Known about the structure:
- By secondary structure, this protein is an alpha/beta fold.
- It has one domain: Carbon-nitrogen hydrolase (Nitrilase/N-carbamoyl-D-aminoacid amidohydrolase, 4-Layer Sandwich), CATH 3.60.110.10.
- The chain has six helices and 16 strands.
- The protein has helices at 14-30, 49-55, 63-75, 159-167, 181-199, 249-257; strands at 2-7, 35-37, 78-87, 93-100, 106-111, 117-121, 124-127, 139-143, 146-150, 172-174, 202-205, 209-211, 217-219, 223-225, 231-234, 240-245.
Amino acid sequence: MKVACVQMCSGRDVDINIASASTQITMAAANGADFVLTPEVTNLLEEDKQKLFAKIGTMENDKAVIAFGALAERLKIYLLIGSLALQSGDGKLVNRSILFGPDGSIINWYDKIHMFDVDLGKGEFYRESANYNAGNRAVIADLPWGKLGMSICYDVRFAHLYRQLAKAGAQFLSVPAAFTQPSGQAHWHVLLRARAIETGSYVFAPAQTGTHENGRQTYGHSLIISPWGEILAQAGTEPEVIMADIDLEKVTQARTKIPALQHDREFTL
């Protein structure tokens, strides 16, 4: 299969964000992509809870869900919207990754498990749990080419999640993100390559980039990584689309050379 990762700079206008993502998704499909992925919070990058609620809906009625389902059907592609901010129905939100099939239907979805509650210093801090409910289930979705283990951004720091996904059959790992500049410069590449190497899996990591309307700065550098840890495609710091050809046999080769997934042992501490 040919996979594409869309890199974008989402703002506060949902319609503009949908249009921007749709343009890049269409471009990727026109260039032969079978599977296209977009970044975390594709529909809206906003911290204010009231403004969030005013602009989004539930998965059943949200305009972005409807638009991207229709786009996947029109383009006849598999489409992972890395995540959408959606109402959960209990007064909070979910940060939800949604996989659409080429008929426009939702194949599976995943709610971000690990909340980004951090203090980065110099006045930069984030409290994702103030607005969002954390997910409580790991998700593997079926694609025609293999199985996809789904995750979102901060999840990448929790290696046990990816190990469990791989041991349960995932050959591809999606890590859509909106990494901050400081943490991105320090950790983005090494964490993603480590997750690929540890599990012998392909990693698809579409990212937000640039300075957003709410003032947040994200790192960009979307990546497609092989099961051996090689960077197959990498974006810079501007909105763009990266693509790579994916060979499932590379997963088998990596896991045969280093069969670490078979070597877990019980131990005491």
